[in-house]
TrEMBL record:
The lineage of its organism: Eukaryota, Fungi, Fungi incertae sedis, Mucoromycota, Mucoromycotina. Inhibits the enzyme activity of ATPase. The gene is INH1. Pfam families: IATP. Belongs to the ATPase inhibitor family. Residues 72-92 are annotated as: Disordered. It is found in: Mitochondrion. This is ATPase inhibitor, mitochondrial. The keyword Lyase does not apply.
Amino acid sequence: MLKLVSRITTRSNTHSVICLSGRYSSSIAGADGATASSKGAFGEKEKALENQWARAHDAEKIKMLREALKKQQEHSEELQKDIDALKKSSKK
């Protein structure tokens, strides 16, 4: 890249600098997203692996949420028992 920059700066003709820098910048931006939009066996395999990971990740999240819900329900039941005990003791 330094050689290219030095060649650009040493040129005296402005038109040459513009054309040379235009060619250089267009070659960099040409391949953005090539892998993500590729078709064929590799793309399908990559998509399948990503979907498999997403399903496993979602299953783990659901498992954790169910455990948290179970703990919350147990805690609510304990609080309800305490409320019932306080009501009985206040009526006596």
